[in-house]
Amino acid sequence: MTYLKQSHISIDTPMAPPAWALMEWELIRTQERACTEFFEKYFDERGYLECIPRWGGNDGPDDAIENLVNWPVLYLLGACDDLRAMCELGWEGHLRQYTEAKTTEVPFARDGMYYREFSDMFDWVHNGEGWTTFNLHGLMDPTPREFENRVRRFAGFYMGDDPQSPNYDKEHKIIRSLINGSRGPMLRKATALDWAGDPLDEVEERYIPLHGERNFEEMLAHFEDYTDVAGDHPSNMVATTLGLNAFAL
């Protein structure tokens, strides 16, 4: 077998940056300014989003933190340190805000929508959206001990060794339910309330329901058939990103 010889390419001739590179750099700076204006308007000094914290498939915790999706990527591409600081503050505030936020009707979130800094239990269409930002934080800086602790704790929820979060069945090599999280899997029938969240008044007047609902009854109706959640589901494959992050450390 023959191998290609190594080649050395020297780049040592100064040249003016091409126009496309200058435009890309200006695009990054423009996005920095937009992110800063957005953060200053919609987040407070604690990093809490200025919103009504709710549980549910329409407007739950995952939707709140999705406001910062891909900010770590923008930082990696060359954005300023202030953007990274805003992203980190927003994440820390998000964890506290939704740990403090509680439901009144949805049973598993009455003690907090987050437990151990993670979603109590939900499907991985929504968990996956909510954890996109955190899964990219290692691109900004993978070295903080708190980041490592969280990565390993979250991965541990799906390895079958955490008695508080028995999501993974080692014998059958499955995740036990479509709805799962830091409080473990849901093994009963799910209800429309589990999906829609606590009752709301003035849905059409105060919100923009993306499924076209005009009132809370229609929100419940949207989820009325989402009941058979026990057992594994293809969306649970997204949970493997937690293990990948831990392995990458």
Summarize the helices and strands and which ones pair or pack.
Blueprint: H1 19-42, H2 61-65, H3 71-76, H4 81-100, E1 114-115, E2 118-119, H5 124-130, H6 132-135, H7 137-140, H8 145-156, E3 168-169, E4 174-175, H9 192-196, H10 203-206, H11 216-222, H12 240-248
Antiparallel strand pairs: 1-2, 3-4
Helix pairs in contact: 1-4, 8-12
Summarize the structure in words.
- The chain is mainly α and 249 residues long.
- It has a domain at 43-187 and 231-248.
- 43% of the residues lie in helices and 3% in strands.
- A two-stranded antiparallel ribbon has the order 1-2.
- Strand 1 (114-115) and strand 2 form a beta hairpin.
- Helix 8 (145-156) packs antiparallel against helix 12.
- The radius of gyration is 22 Å and the shape is globular.
- The two termini are 35 Å apart.
- The mean pLDDT is 95.
Poorly predicted spans: none
Using only C-alpha atoms, the radius of gyration works out to 22 Å
Q: Report strand order across the widest sheet.
A: 1-2
Average of pLDDT: 95
How far apart the termini lie comes to 35 Å
Count of helix runs: 12
* Share of residues in strands: under 5%
Question: What is the H/E order?
Answer: HHHHEEHHHHEEHHHH
Task: Quickly give the structural class.
Answer: mainly alpha
Taking the sheet with the most strands, its summary is: 2 strands, antiparallel
What's the oligomerization state? Answer: single chain
What best-fitting shape do the alpha-carbon axes yield?
A: globular
Fraction of helical residues: 40-55%
Using DSSP, what is the number of strands? 4
